[in-house]
Amino acid sequence: MKLGELAAQLSCTVEGNPNVEIRGLAAIQQAGPGELSFIESEKYARFLKSTRAEALILDWRTHRPDIPCIRSDQPRLAFARALALYYQPRLPVPGVHPSAVIGTEVRLGADVHIGAHVVIADDVTIGDGAILFPNSTIYSGVRIGARTVIHANCAIHERTEIGDDCILQSGTVVGTEGFGFVPTLEGTWHKMPQSGYVRIEDNVEIGSNTAIDRPAVGYTRIGRGSKLDNLVMIGHGSQIDDNCLLIAQVGLAGGVQVGRNVVLAGQVGVAGHASIGDRAMVSAKGGVPSDVEPGTVVSGSPAMPHALWLRTSALIRRLPELFQNVRELQHKLALLQRRLQIGDE
Amino acid sequence: MKLGELAAQLSCTVEGNPNVEIRGLAAIQQAGPGELSFIESEKYARFLKSTRAEALILDWRTHRPDIPCIRSDQPRLAFARALALYYQPRLPVPGVHPSAVIGTEVRLGADVHIGAHVVIADDVTIGDGAILFPNSTIYSGVRIGARTVIHANCAIHERTEIGDDCILQSGTVVGTEGFGFVPTLEGTWHKMPQSGYVRIEDNVEIGSNTAIDRPAVGYTRIGRGSKLDNLVMIGHGSQIDDNCLLIAQVGLAGGVQVGRNVVLAGQVGVAGHASIGDRAMVSAKGGVPSDVEPGTVVSGSPAMPHALWLRTSALIRRLPELFQNVRELQHKLALLQRRLQIGDE
Amino acid sequence: MKLGELAAQLSCTVEGNPNVEIRGLAAIQQAGPGELSFIESEKYARFLKSTRAEALILDWRTHRPDIPCIRSDQPRLAFARALALYYQPRLPVPGVHPSAVIGTEVRLGADVHIGAHVVIADDVTIGDGAILFPNSTIYSGVRIGARTVIHANCAIHERTEIGDDCILQSGTVVGTEGFGFVPTLEGTWHKMPQSGYVRIEDNVEIGSNTAIDRPAVGYTRIGRGSKLDNLVMIGHGSQIDDNCLLIAQVGLAGGVQVGRNVVLAGQVGVAGHASIGDRAMVSAKGGVPSDVEPGTVVSGSPAMPHALWLRTSALIRRLPELFQNVRELQHKLALLQRRLQIGDE
């Protein structure tokens, strides 16, 4: 595709030669002849000089006159849209593979694809255009929305409802029994039945080998447009509102409330029943013992305001020096007192 | 079911109208007409006033005279028992699905259910009433006890023995080769054969996408009545005694010894060959580098006594102030010395 | 096997009776009659006196004259080699199970084993002697090398290439779409297409339920001879060089660069685009926010040089005492000033 054509498809303008041929896209450091790249953050500005890209997507302030460019207010978003013109994941054609095992009262929408060795229990509803990759297991009573893609080897348990346009990566498990056990006087654990539900709303993406539990009563909920990465744990009854980002290996205990547009970075843990306000962020490895205010950024374990964490993290490295300084102060003061023949009193 | 009937089944007494109809159970904040709830800890006492529950399970000290209640010494346990009267997970009927692939010398007990596309290798024993959900894989030589339930897409490897009345949630892997590699002089890693065994005793529950390894020699063991949550990692040769609780994303390195009734909270990590005494607890995200005394609670990474951790965590937040105070002390003392014309000596 | 025979196979010499019969191998604490064990590190030297092993593998400095021993410069390596003479995991014989579903243009090498209910999409290449255990799913276009073993219930996605002599434990997912989302002005997340590749080189081992993502552009790479444990997360575009060890539950964000012979201990997290130099080590639970120098050992979160971390970890426990000391200094100094009628000025 020529650069000008590509820009037109993105509704963007070109500076420089619109006739260069774009064969593919690449990161700024790797891009070479025939490849389009982009620069967004300051972090990558240093690559602007050295890049061998054929063309660039740039914001309005960035300049490299000898390389033709597409101008965009959001270069990364434009890059994502351009990339979609060159690559779409291979999706299978509609149809039910003969090796799939499908129970009674299963309602399959139009144009669904049910892959080889998929097992669907009784009383399941699958929306139009949904795709189930091989070896997944759908328990009885599950509802899956239209155009939702479930990759290989997933297990979707009873009492789960998944909305439209969702993507579940491989190996993910949704709707399993929450981890509820009541201590007995004999020192054993009595299993709390897990009679609740899981609701995954529209346009949610869930990574690989993630686990989402259903609660004893009530709902576990993943709000519309939220994205969960790989190996994430969502405890029973946790509620995640719309457009959140939960990065890999995050763990929510039971009954956590997460507001809208919250970002939980990798390996964050949130204690049971904590509430995280809208647009809050927790930095990687943060441990959240209790509520987080909307719009704040917290870090560390136990989590504290990010700016405070930056300072205390730097100061912890200086603890040896601090202890030394205090020892010296003690020594000097004692000496002074002795010289002056004045005691502590 | 009427409240009186329900109480009778729990062997509990009713205060107030025993004829109210209980249609279901709910958490105290969500419970409405027709629903039974419970209050246990102080934490929920604030909801006692506002709840719209039809009836409550209460201990003997808690009062809300206008709502009929069931009295119990252990309200949460009574709630769990009541919930079991209203909900039981759907379990499939006995039988072997024709799509299951079953090897030679496989001994299936009475009334087992082998789901669609389950694969059982040779020389496997499965006890009476066991249930294997679809798409699970059982390697050769495995023994699975009576009434044990293995959910979908699990893999149980050779040299594994699972007791009676266990539950394995979906996607869990048991008995894989431990992570044993010996460094060579060439800088490569030589694989240590993993010839040991995994023994999961009776009444163990294991969450989704958890991984339990077998060791080079000897056993990995999960003791009777212990419960493991989702995404837990049990390294080769670790031994967990009875009635432990390992919450989500806990990781045990190799050769860890865990006593009875130990609780490891979410995302805890335990270093190789550490020993954790009976009834000890490690708080969420704790990092345990070495042995933990029985009955103690430790927190933080590296873990320390919980009370000390609470204090140090609070003091870390005050480090900026402490550094400032020490600088001021240095300044004042220097000034004083100058005024007095007395040096450090 | 007799000890002398065993030593000969390891090209080692025997001290003591070469005719004792070795029935099996065991750890030094558990070894009994008929069993061979080894002692390597100082840590186990205390067991040398009490062991009941029939024979031992020892280095040249360690002595226990009444037990016959095999001498080796690397006792652990010799033990691994000896163990391999007694145990090899059961591998299935070549052949394609009739229940496997195999697409078009699939090239199977000589002597491959394709297990029951394996699903292989179109245009897949599988090398000579490769073994795919049951219920695994191979997406279209994947290439798997010779003698590579893929255990049960794995999913290998499009755009993935796996080298020769690799082992993937059960439940592992390779090549899924990276977690790439671009924020929009409306507060939603726009999916970045993930058109890149995953390359797993020869002789790599990957644990159970691990997840390795493919990137938007470019490659995710696991270098020759590297070993990944269970529940590890490799973000899109991360590059791991040869002979690294990534222990359980490690998480790499996107675009991380890991040098050769790096060891990342359990539950370590590495931030996006950080670079870890050759032979560096990160201790368990370490959080790596930025680059790590080659050959260094770092610990803690945020990570610092290991020696500093040891000191600061010890000093953190003494913070209550330090705060108390500073308060006392303030008090004493104020008193002194008052006595001397000298102010701060």
UniProtKB/TrEMBL annotation, chains A, B, C:
Top-level lineage group: Bacteria
Q: Which residues form a coiled coil?
A: none
List GO BP terms, alphabetically. Answer: lipid A biosynthetic process
One of the record's GO cellular component terms: carboxysome
The UniProt keyword set, sorted, is: Acyltransferase, Lipid A biosynthesis, Lipid biosynthesis, Lipid metabolism, Repeat, Transferase
What sequence ranges are listed for the domain UDP-3-O-[3-hydroxymyristoyl] glucosamine N-acyltransferase non-repeat region?
19-85
Q: What does this protein do?
A: Catalyzes the N-acylation of UDP-3-O-acylglucosamine using 3-hydroxyacyl-ACP as the acyl donor. Is involved in the biosynthesis of lipid A, a phosphorylated glycolipid that anchors the lipopolysaccharide to the outer membrane of the cell.
Q: Which family does it belong to?
A: Belongs to the transferase hexapeptide repeat family. LpxD subfamily.
How it assembles, according to the record, is:
Homotrimer.
This one is known as: UDP-3-O-acylglucosamine N-acyltransferase
